[in-house]
Structure formats: C-alpha cells, structure tokens
C-alpha cells in the first residue's frame, strides 16, 4: 500500500453503491449522482459500483438459498447444457435491466452489444475449458477459481458501463473504469491495477464509475469471495488518499432491524467506531467487510454509511474516535450452534483448544464467539449442521473420551463504542428475565464494546425487541441526552 498523499491533496471521496441501490439507478440521478449539485459538486468523487441486484446470484449461486447459477452449474453439470442455459438466462436478464434504466435507443444498443461481447466471450472460455477437461491430462478443478473470478466480474462491468451511459446522457462527464481485466493478458497486483486504471483521470472534470470487481494477481474471490467489491472500494480510497469513504445503502445504519422492533422505534446510529463495525461484521451484519474496515482504518480514512435515497442526511460516521460514551448503539443477533467440548482430563493440559480450532477451521465454520472454563470449551458457530457434525467427528478421533455436543441457540448482542458506564449485563439479564426469556449464557469482554446474551432460538426476535426497548428506544435516547 502506498503512503497516504499529503492533506492538501485529499479533496475527493470514494463512494460505493450496493446492488439493491444500483437497481434503482434512475432514482440515483436525483440523489447521489446529480440532484441539486452544481458542476463543482458533481466531480471530485469516485463511484465504485456493485452488480445490479440479483445478477451475481445468477452468475455464481444465490447468496442465501444456494440455488445454483452459471458457476455452480458449470462446476456440477456433466452434460454441459445446464450452465449454458443459465448463461442465456443471465444475458437476457442483463438486457432487461438496462432496458429499463436507459431510455435512449442508441444507449440500449450499446449496452446490448456490451452484454453480447462479455457473455459470449465467457461462454467461449467455458466451452474451451470443458473440451480440455475431456482429456485425461487436464483438470478443470484447477481452473475453477479463475472461472469464478471471470464470471463474477461480468456483473460489475455491466452495471458500471450502463451507469456511465446513463450519466453521459444527462450531460455528466462520466468515465467507465473497468478493473475486470477483460481481454487483458497481464496479471498485475491490485495496487498496480488501481494505479493503471486511475492514471490520467482528472477528478475535477471527470466522474469515474469503477467496477466493484478487480482482476489481480492476489485473486480477490479466493480470499474474500462475495465481499470483494468492498475490498476494492477500500483499497481505492486508501491508495488515492480520499478524504472520506462512503458506502451508500438503501437504509440507514440503525439501532436494530426495523422489521423486528418497528421503524418508529429505531434510531440512526449517527457515529460509531471501527471497533463496533468489526463486531457487526463478525455477527454477519453487512455494514462493511472486516477486511475493508481494516484497510480504511490503517490508512486513516474515515468511513460514512449513508442512505442512498436521502442525500441530505449525513448518515453514520465510522472513525477512530467512535460514538458517544455511555450509549448503546445497536442491538442485533443471529442463530448459532453451541459447539461444546467437555473433557475432564483437559484440566491443566494444553492442546484441546487447538484441536477444536483446527477442526472448525478445516470445515470452514465461522466462530462468532467462544467461552471456556477448566474442562469445557464452547464455540458459538455459524455454519451448516453437516459441517458441524464433521468437525465433531474429527475432535472425537483425537479425544475419544471427550463429550462433544451441538445445539441451536440465538446470540443477541448489545453494542456500543464505550459501554463502560452502563450496567448492560445486569440490566439486560433483568429485562430478559422479566420478559420470560430463558437465559442460557451471557458474557462481556473487558473492552466494553459488546455484551452477549445466549437465549433459545425461538426467542431471538423477542430478546432483541426487549433489549432494544430497554437501551435504545427514542425515549431512552432522549432521556440520556437530557
């Protein structure tokens, strides 16, 4: 990573737009891109865009349901027909998307041609790979990471190209910045890819629209999988010395899920720390990818999470100074599996924890939290039951006399930049008990940024609602401010 440019050069922002917001691109003209801005306000910004909503699911696999897309069908399909059908469906979907966004026939024709070129090129590559795989000396499995990279980049390239056409039609000097490496025989490092792409761009008079995927020697999909766009965004902000990095979402970063506690009861966080952002990432909240947060934190670039369709609202600033001390900022939670290793013989011995960690890592299980005492180690996991059973079998092979159990619970977390002056643990236990919610376990760390409550899975939403009502309702916020 190059050193941060002098303060005098930090005049621009780097801003990322998520897929759901990108699908409302025409509305973004009146909020993010143009709105009431004069020429000077339109520029000195760099936009990193995700694929339009649902496109990456079609190209790879559905993020939540696992329903196969082009990549998954290519990886599993022996006949060769399934992935081609999926690719044709994706091509038609892309054309439908930009057909709704672009109103000029010439722009639609250019976008159609772009889709044909990219998807036909991808189809030719996959067919060549399939032919090679028919010979015993070649193994397609060795190229599957490359296939995943190739396909994932198609969605971001399409959205960036279409957005550029849309802006140019509205007299904005937008510039399409393609980081996907299409028909590029080189394999640069990410920093070199970014430097080459931005060379010659005049931020004072041009508005770069950058693909959220970047082809590079590091192989972003291998390390970050679907979180690559935020990592590209963070690297670009750090490398260009942005004065601020912004993530535009279709909702505010607020105190709880409005579907659980009610929109009228949520409070916009407004200001928080990177420490809290890390906890949110650990809990599966899509505030920002943990690696992206790390990049921005090290480069001393403040991050703001804003509402894409409420441009007048400053959103939530995430920085080293954090939020107000003595304030609960968010109550959230998720379902977990309590993976418990009990072995009386572990008292005074070393190695039991390492064995469990190796098994959980081997089966790609996400450790949300953990607790241990003299003879028991409990990991609270996010992952499939099949993977957990395999990890259990591995541990029992090493320690056949141990007892390993797994049971479903819900982990509810109370978060804040500095909870030192609040009796969150005691107050939370009392509130949950009065609400008739059984408490399986509870714990807090010395840093006082998070307190965790383990409750039955069926009580997840009730526990979030109860704790939010105690700590973060608008009435409580006003009371603390007074």
Q: Please bin the fraction of helical residues.
A: 40-55%
Task: Tell me the CATH topology of the largest domain.
Answer: Carbamate kinase
Overall spatial form: globular
Structural class, by secondary structure, is alpha/beta
What's the pLDDT, averaged over the residues? Answer: 90
Give the number of helices: 19
Number of domains: 2
Number of strands: 14
SS strand fraction: 15-25%
For the record, the CATH class of the largest domain is Alpha Beta
Low-pLDDT segments, ≥5 res: 1-8, 478-482
Give an overview in words.
The protein is α/β, with parallel strands linked by helices and 482 residues long. The protein folds into two domains: 7-250 and 271-319, Carbamate kinase (3-Layer(aba) Sandwich), CATH 3.40.1160; 330-481, VC0802-like (2-Layer Sandwich), CATH 3.30.2130. The protein is 43% helix and 18% strand. An eight-stranded mixed sheet has the order 3-4-2-1-5-7-8-6, sandwiched between helices. A six-stranded antiparallel sheet has the order 10-11-9-12-14-13. Helix 5 packs antiparallel against helix 6, helix 11 (228-239) runs parallel beside helix 14 and helix 13 runs antiparallel to helix 14 (290-298). Mean pLDDT is 90; it is low at 1-8 and 478-482.
Write the layout of secondary structure elements.
Layout: E1 13-17, H1 19-22, H2 25-33, H3 39-42, E2 45-49, H4 55-59, H5 70-76, H6 82-101, H7 105-133, H8 144-169, E3 174-177, H9 190-198, E4 207-211, H10 220-224, H11 228-239, E5 244-249, H12 258-261, E6 271-273, H13 274-282, H14 290-298, E7 303-307, E8 316-319, E9 330-342, H15 352-362, E10 366-372, E11 376-382, H16 385-398, E12 403-415, H17 424-434, E13 441-444, E14 450-455, H18 460-471, H19 474-481
Parallel strand pairs: 1-2, 1-5, 2-4, 3-4, 5-7, 6-8
Antiparallel strand pairs: 7-8, 9-11, 9-12, 10-11, 12-14, 13-14
Helix pairs in contact: 5-6, 6-7, 7-8, 9-11, 11-14, 13-14, 15-16, 17-18
